[in-house]
Amino acid sequence: MPETTPLPADPPGPIAIPASLSHLPVVAGLIVPWITLQTPDGRPLFGSIDAGRREWCLWQSRCQICAAALEHPTVLFAREQDLLRRRTAEPGLHPWCAHYCARACPMLAGRQRHYRRTDPDLPALLGLPQEAIRREDPAHTAARQAASAQTWFTVWVRGYRPVWDHATDALAASFADRPPLRVRRLTPLT
Ligand SMILES: [Zn+2]
């Protein structure tokens, strides 16, 4: 069985952006992940995913944060049920990108007990037409918008296999044919 080691608590204060990621766009002190959905005028919708970019990352083995080619090992974010099914809808990450994301993302860091639900009036609030959010992946959004935040893990793997997940009707990263190098609990126990 892989180890499950809780990560130490985050220090207080803003999340430092490592020098290796300093070339990435930053909004409100946070790196904008490459797969984050953006408005037509380039504003990121944190927590919403661009379906096309997510699938491109999965097919091309690119990092969901920086879009660069993944190396070995690769880190996958997974919930408990994803571990059981040995697949996740989350594209892989470089270890250093995963380290930043685990501290910066409220959902993964366990600082937010509930997902932010997409406001049905979001386009109106942003002054955008309704089709502005149409590229969002419904299956992936549904997974992220579960009623309660769940425990997340990092799964370290030597690559993954892109597969079609019939349960979510969306592309996923499968590690069914390769045992994880290690598994770590991300969300602090409460
Ligand atoms: Zn990366």
Can you describe what's shown?
Helices cover 22% and strands 22% of the residues. It is an alpha+beta fold and 190 residues long. The strands form 4 sheets. The protein has a 3-stranded antiparallel β-sheet with strand order 5-7-10. A 3-stranded antiparallel β-sheet has the order 6-9-8. Strands 1-2 form a two-stranded antiparallel ribbon. It is globular and about 40 Å long. It starts with 25 loop residues before the first strand and ends in a 5-residue tail after the last strand. Residues 1-11, 112-130 and 132-136 have low confidence and may be disordered. Bound molecules: zinc ion. Zinc ion binds next to loops.
Report the sheet with the most strands, covering strand number, pairing sense and barrel closure. 3 strands, antiparallel
- The DSSP helix count reads 6
Uncertain segments are 1-11, 112-130, 132-136
What is the overall pLDDT average? 78
How much β-strand is present in the residues? 15-25%
What is the strand arrangement across the widest sheet? Answer: 5-7-10
The helix fraction, in percent, is 10-25%
By secondary-structure content and strand pairing, the structural class works out as: alpha+beta
- Provide the list of bound ligands, each named once: zinc ion
Evaluate the radius of gyration: 16 Å
Write the element-wise H/E pattern from the N-terminal end onward.
Answer: EEEEHEHEHHHHEEEE
Spatial gap, N to C terminus: 23 Å
Structure described in brief:
The protein has 190 residues and is of the alpha+beta class. 22% of the residues lie in helices and 22% in strands. It has helices at 51-60, 80-85, 95-104, 106-109, 122-125, 138-144, and strands spanning 26-27, 30-31, 36-38, 44-49, 74-79, 87-88, 152-157, 161-165, 170-174, 182-185.
